Amino acid sequence: MELYYDFHTHSCLSPCGDKDMTPYNLVNMSKLLGLDIIALTDHNTCRNCESAIKVGKEAGLTVIPGMELCTAEEVHVVCLFPDTESAMRFSDYIHSTMPPVKNRPDIFGEQLVMDERDNVIGTEDILLTLASSVSISNVCSLVEDYGGVCYPAHIDRSSYSVLSNLGMITEDMGFSAVEMTADADKDALIKGHPILDGVTVFVDSDAHYLENIKDAQNKISLPENSAKAVIEYIKSLPKMKKLI
Ligand SMILES: [Zn+2]
Ligand SMILES: [Zn+2]
């Protein structure tokens, strides 16, 4: 089946995410825009995923529990998990690798944990946008250990991307897909980085505000509409290989 997807969105738990990006609003706006499956990928945490999945069940939209991990090199990586339990175990582990710097809501914004009815049920104290201690060379195997998959986020951006920060993607990183923004010049990127030739590209919104969620336009073909089907699909993709 063909599914309209968006595998990179933020909620009000990300300090840079708008307050209106509650799990309820995010899911219902995505549904309204015609999406079939989304992932909630807050910075370095999965704590709002369970609520978003609950809203998704009511609204008829599949929600994949995910995270936008910031590696030690300050490279953003989209991580997706088959279920909340695996995602939360990963989230707890990442929390333990974060520098113990407290959030300053007056400067960076609040980091709100919400239930499926927009009630605030907690806040995250540590600043979620800082780098974890996970290196990009270990991220694929680490995420795999938790049953998930990952790919480097917005590789065409000039900050927090593998190309901006490291200048290249190498086969030993172990990725089999990448994310580009809707504005990316794909041909130019492939020309500059031939390792990307033939590699699966996901185009996600990286929405931090309700109005940033895009109309349904990017499709994926899967045997069923589920988080597990997405994970299996990405796992089945060939790893990037160095071209000779
Ligand atoms: Zn990012
Ligand atoms: Zn993001």
Low-confidence stretches: none
Largest sheet: 6 strands, mixed
Structural class of the helices, strands and pairings?
Answer: alpha/beta
In total, the number of domains comes to 1
Please count the helical segments.
8
Order of helices and strands: EHEHEEHHEEHEHEHEEH
Mean pLDDT: 97
How would you describe the shape?
Answer: globular
CATH topology: TIM Barrel
Report the CATH superfamily. Answer: Metal-dependent hydrolases
Could you give the order of strands across the largest sheet?
Answer: 7-4-3-2-1-10
CATH class: Alpha Beta
What's the quick description here?
The chain has a single domain (2-236), classed as Metal-dependent hydrolases (TIM Barrel, Alpha-Beta Barrel), CATH 3.20.20. The chain contains eight helices and ten strands.
Throw out a few tags for this protein.
244 residues; alpha/beta; TIM Barrel; two-stranded antiparallel sheet; 28% helix; binds zinc ion
Secondary structure elements and pairings:
Blueprint: E1 2-9, H1 23-32, E2 37-43, H2 49-59, E3 62-70, E4 76-80, H3 84-97, H4 105-108, E5 112-114, E6 120-123, H5 139-145, E7 149-152, H6 162-166, E8 177-180, H7 186-192, E9 200-203, E10 219-221, H8 227-236
Parallel strand pairs: 1-2, 2-3, 8-9
Antiparallel strand pairs: 1-10, 3-4, 4-7, 5-6
Helix pairs in contact: 1-2
Bound molecules: zinc ion (2 copies).
One zinc ion binds next to loops.
